[in-house]
Structure formats: C-alpha cells, structure tokens
C-alpha cells in the first residue's frame, strides 16, 4: 500500500483531530460497496480509495459546520442609515436656523428625534459598535475559512491519489474486459464451428460460451464502476480545486479588507471621535444659538410691551395723582337726591297723616258699632255672661 495516500489523508485527519472537529464515528460511504467489487483486482488501491471517500464526509461536515456558524448580514445598511440620520438631522437643524424660528411641529420633531434615534453621540457610538461587530465577525469568517482551506489542502492530495488509483484500476478492468471479449469470441466461434452429432459436446461448448458471456458482463460492469470512479474523482478534484481556488481568492480579499478595515479604524478613530464631537458640538451650538436668540427676542418684546403698557399706566397714575378727587356731578346727584327725598318725605308725611286719621275714625266707628250691638243683645237676656277682667288678679 502506498504510504503517500495515507500521508496526505493522515495529515488532514490529524489537523481535524487537533481542531476537535473529528467525529467519534464515521459512517461508511455507500460508494464503498461498489469499490469492494474491484477489491480482487487490486485490494490495496481499492482500500485506499474506499478509505479516502469515507473520510470525505468528515471534511464535508467540517465545511458545512464552519459555514453555518458564519455570521453574515447587511449591517453595513445600519451604518449607512445611522450616518444618513445624522446628516438629515443636521440639515433640518440648518433649515430651522434659516427660517429664524422653531415652531411646535419642529419642537415635537426634535423631541421625537432624540426619543427614536438617540442623540448624536449615541448614534456615532452605535456606528462604532456595528463596525467593530462586523470586523470581529469578518475575522471569525477568515479563521473558519482558513480551517476549511487547510483541511482541504491536505485532503485534496489524498483525493488526487485516489484518482490515480482509480485510473490504474480502470486500465486493469479494461484489460480484463478486453480479455473477456476475446474469450467470448473464441467460445462463440467454437459453437459456430462445431460439426457432428454429439449434442452433449455441443451443449458443453454452448455452456462455455454462456459462461464467457456472463464473465464478460461482469468484467464490463466492473470496468464501468472503475470508469465512474476515475471520472468522478477527476471531476471532483478539478471542480473542487477551482471552487477552493475561488474560496482562497475570497479569503485573501476578505483578509485584505479586514486588515485594511482594522487599520483604518485604528488610525482614524480620532477622526471618528472628532466627527462625534463636531456634530455634537454643532447641535449644542445650535441649541445655544437658539437659546440666545430666544432670550434676545423675549427681552426685546418685553421692552416693547413695557414701553406701550407702562406709558398708559404711568399716564393714568399722573391723572390720578394730580386730577380732581370727587367728581362734581356726583355731589350734585347726591344733593338732588337729598332735596328730592326731603320734598318727597313732606308729601308722604301729609299723605300718611290723612290716611292715619281716616284709619282711626274707621276703627272708632267699627268698635262703637260693635258695642251698641252687644248692649242690645244683653238687654234681651239669655246670653252668656261676659268675663269681668277688672276683678281677675
């Protein structure tokens, strides 16, 4: 058995074990059953091919596992969106400055901006965090791709050796197939050339021909198995080689981008920090400017109001301080009222005196009438005695 085949295969498996990626059990590949049909031709080569193809599932599993753990997204869109939001808010700030006033809608927009998008510093921090997260994941991808490529670099040697062995087996199976073709031709010729009446002898020749035909079919089948193996190993090796070459190119480019990325951030973090400070400072300057403008406007309008309202107040004060106290028409009205009352009271008194006299006369007449009626009743007798209030003590 060639040591070269197992040198490549063992080296590849050794790396897999060192990485802790070697499974405890490796299931036999279905193709091994086909390969075993060629074992009697060259047991060493068929064993080498079978072992290599069985371990191929291990490397495929490594690739699938490493690829599935790669974090890939569109986080660059988050960075773009964050930068756009900062620039858009800065433009809105300029528009607010240009019209010279901040209306209610703009105030609400400013509050909503801080609530939903955060302040400028926090958005720059978010950009930085996203950038570092992508850089960290890129490094992880590069390392995982290195694992794939390193494992493949050694394993592809074993695949190439298996291809060589498969081609050797193809030659041997083709030779056996050709041998069986000649044997079948000879057996067929013997049947055709037979003459005589010995049917048993003729039947033996026909049996030999049929056995030869069966052997030929078996040889052809094994030839096809060897051909399938050699063809597919050739396709697999060369196709995988091209794909892995592209992966190597991608990995190299990604490694270059990663190095440039961390170098860019490492050397330009001060620029990023300055951007954060500048934008934050600019928004702070905007607030200070608007605050100062608000103070100026408020003081100016207060002075104008003081000028207009204060003059009226002071004018009223002067009028009150130096003007008449009790208005003459008021006193006149009071005098008129007093005199009118006095005149009216005289009339009322005279009127009331007449009414009083009349009322007294009516009472006297009513009482006198009552007494006369009572005296006549007593004179007729049979009436109840009247109480004597003069003796009651």
Give an overview in words.
Helix 4 packs antiparallel against helix 6 (120-193), helix 4 (75-98) runs parallel beside helix 7 (199-322) and helix 6 (120-193) runs antiparallel to helix 7. With 393 residues, the protein is mainly α. The longest helix is centred in the middle third of the chain and has 124 residues, at 199-322. The chain is 85% helix and 0% strand. The protein has one domain.
What layout of secondary structure does this protein have?
Elements: H1 3-18, H2 31-35, H3 43-68, H4 75-98, H5 104-117, H6 120-193, H7 199-322, H8 328-380
Helix pairs in contact: 1-3, 1-6, 3-6, 4-6, 4-7, 6-7
Total helical elements? 8
Report the span from N to C terminus: 165 Å
When the domains are counted, the total is 1
- Percent of residues in helices comes to over 70%
Spell the H/E element sequence.
HHHHHHHH
Any low-confidence stretches, pLDDT <50, length ≥5? 389-393
Shape: elongated
Rg measurement, Å = 62 Å
Protein name: Cell surface protein
Organism: Neptunomonas japonica JAMM 1380
In short:
The protein is an all-alpha fold and 393 residues long. Helix content is 85%, strand content 0%.
List keywords for this structure.
Cell surface protein; mainly alpha; 8 helices; disordered C terminus; about 400 residues; elongated
């Amino acid at each position: 058995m060639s040591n070269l085949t197992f040198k490549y295969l063992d080296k590849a498996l050794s790396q897999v074990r060192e990485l802790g990626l070697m499974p405890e059990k490796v299931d036999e590949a279905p193709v091994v059953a086909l390969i075993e049909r060629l074992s009697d031709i060259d047991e060493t080569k068929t064993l080498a091919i079978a072992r290599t193809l069985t371990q191929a599932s291990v490397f495929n599993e490594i690739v699938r596992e490493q690829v599935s753990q790669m974090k890939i997204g569109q986080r660059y869109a988050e960075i773009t969106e964050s930068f756009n939001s900062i620039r858009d808010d800065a433009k809105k700030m300029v528009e607010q400055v240009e019209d010279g006033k901040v209306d209610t809608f703009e105030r609400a927009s400013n509050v909503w901006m801080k609530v939903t998008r955060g302040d400028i510093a926090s958005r720059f921090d978010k950009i930085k965090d996203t950038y570092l997260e992508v850089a960290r994941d890129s490094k992880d991808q590069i390392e995982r791709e290195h694992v794939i490529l390193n494992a493949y670099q050694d394993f592809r040697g074993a695949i190439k050796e298996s291809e060589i062995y498969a081609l050797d087996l193809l030659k041997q199976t083709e030779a056996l197939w050709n041998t069986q073709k000649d044997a079948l031709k000879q057996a067929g010729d013997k049947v055709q050339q037979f003459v005589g009446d010995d049917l048993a002898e003729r039947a033996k020749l026909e049996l030999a021909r049929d056995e030869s035909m069966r052997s030929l079919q078996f040889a052809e089948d094994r030839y096809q198995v060897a051909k399938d193996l050699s063809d597919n190993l050739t396709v697999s090796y060369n196709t995988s080689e091209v794909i892995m070459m592209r992966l190597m190119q991608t990995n190299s480019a990604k490694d270059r981008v990663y190095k440039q990325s961390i170098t860019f951030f490492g050397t330009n973090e001060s620029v990023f920090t300055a951007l954060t400070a500048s934008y934050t400072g600019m928004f702070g300057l905007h607030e200070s400017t608007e605050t100062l403008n608000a103070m100026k406007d408020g003081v100016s309008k207060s002075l104008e109001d003081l000028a207009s309202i204060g003059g009226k107040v002071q004018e009223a004060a002067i009028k009150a301080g130096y003007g008449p106290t009790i208005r003459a028409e008021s006193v006149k009205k009071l005098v008129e009222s007093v005199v009118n009352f006095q005149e009216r009271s005289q009339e009322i008194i005279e009127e009331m005196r007449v009414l009083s006299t009349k009322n007294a006369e009516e009472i006297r007449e009513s009482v006198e009438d009552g007494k006369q009626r009572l005296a006549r009743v007593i004179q007729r007798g049979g009436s109840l005695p009247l109480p004597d209030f003069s003796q009651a003590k």
